[in-house]
Structures are given as C-alpha cells and as structure tokens.
Design a protein that fits this description.
This protein is mostly helical. It has 2 domains: 3-166, no CATH class; 182-237. The chain is built from 12 helices and no strands. Helix 2 (18-34) packs across helix 9 (128-156) and helix 2 (18-34) packs across helix 10 (169-178). 30% of the residues are buried.
C-alpha cells in the first residue's frame, strides 16, 4: 500500500465517526459557553487540548465551583490515556522523525487512535511510511470538524432546542471506540471493573471518582494479563 493510498484510506475509515464528532464538539461549545467561557476561550481550549473528555471534565468542575487546581488535575488525569495511546503506537510509528511524532501527538484523539491501532494490528505488512500516512489521513477528517463544530456550538448553542439532546454523543462516542478494542479477557475485565467502580464512586465530589475508577480498571487489567500469561507459561512447562 502506497502512502498516498494509505492516507485516503485512513480518511475514509474515520468517516463514520463524523456522526458522533459533530454533535460531540457542538455540545462542548454549548457547555463551555454555559460555563461562562467566551468564544475565544472556548476555541482556545479546543485548539490547544483537542481532547473532548478532559475538556468536558474541566468545564464541568469549573461549573461546580471546584478549585482550579482540581479541575486541572482531573483533566490531566483523564488525558493520561493519551500516554497509553502513544505507547501503543510506538511499535508502528515510532520510526518517524521527532517533528512528525510531535505533530502526531498533538493531533491524537480517541477516534483516530482506535481506528489506526486496529488497522496496524490487522495489517502488519503496512510499510512504515504508509502507517504514518494512514494516521494523518484519520486526523485530517476529525480535527477540522472538531474545531469547526466547536465554534458552531459556541456561536449558536443557545438556539439549539433542548429536545435535540446533544449530550447523547458523549457515551455513544466512547462505546463505539471501546467495544471493538475489547479483544482479550484482560481488556474485558478492566472495562467491567472501571464501569462498576465509576458507579460505586459516583458520590465522590468533583467527579474524582472517575479517576479512582480508571486507576482500578488499569490495575485490574494489568494484573489479569499478568495472571493469564503466567498460567500459560505454567501450562507449557
């Protein structure tokens, strides 16, 4: 596969996410304006962060009058998943130049990672150049829509009828991304533990229960994978 062909394939592979990204980004524009941010502040946050979950977390905490450092800490904790995404992509695109990798890190979003890593796993024969091109193809579609629809939500959000319920896009988006990646017992166990813990710790102030749930999910998934690996080794000896 040539880099050019890989680029356009990435573009098309991410196309279904438009149905989610459009209302998701518009919703952030609406919520940010409701929280007291002006249009410039809303757009600055979207352009600098490009991470819906952490942006929603920070804005929600600010609406609850949480201390700024708590909002920043929670947003950072939510965004730590990007570090795991980066580690997962290193075997596939770690060969790229530093500047290219920096741009890839800036542009990284959940949808592009989910699509790219699955394609890399399913097609190990892709050349290094094709992998990089594929990734940028995914991002070329997602980022401009994220910017544009955030601006649209910030400008006309108040005119959107409440009956439209744009907030449906948040859970649907993450379900659509997560479900195809649950490929092993460790993945399923981690997801279940995190979901149960999120409900159990929903009472924790400032949504910090989500951080607890994420930590428990990660630890449980890692321990499950370690246990299964050791069991497999014992079975072969």
């Amino acid at each position: 596969m040539t880099p050019r062909r890989a680029f356009w394939r990435g573009y098309l592979d991410c196309a279904p996410f438009i149905l989610i990204v459009v209302p998701y980004s518009m919703l952030f524009g609406v919520v940010a304006r409701d929280a007291g941010l002006d249009v410039l502040q809303t757009m600055s946050m979207s352009v600098l962060v490009i991470a819906g979950a952490s942006q929603f977390t920070a804005v929600a905490l600010l609406q609850e009058n949480a201390p700024v450092f708590i909002a920043l800490f929670a947003a950072l904790a939510v965004n730590l998943r990007m570090a795991m995404y980066s580690a997962a992509l290193v075997p596939y695109v770690g060969h790229a130049r530093l500047g290219t990798r920096a741009l890839m890190a800036y542009l990284m979003v959940d949808q592009a990672f989910a699509v790219a890593v699955r394609t890399y796993e399913d097609q190990p024969e892709m050349s290094p150049a094709a992998r990089v091109a594929y990734y940028f193809g995914c991002m070329l579609l997602i980022c401009p829509i994220w910017y544009g629809c955030t601006l649209l939500g910030a400008l006309v959000g108040q005119a959107i009828p409440a009956a439209f319920s744009l907030d449906f896009a948040v859970p649907v988006c993450f379900i659509a991304m997560t479900a195809p990646l649950l490929r092993s017992a460790a993945h399923v166990v981690a997801a279940l533990v995190a979901a149960v813990a999120a409900l159990a710790f929903a009472w924790v102030p400032w949504s910090l229960g989500l951080i607890v749930a994420a930590t428990l999910g990660i630890l449980t998934g890692a321990q499950t994978e370690l246990y299964l690996r050791r069991r497999a080794q014992r079975a072969t000896t």
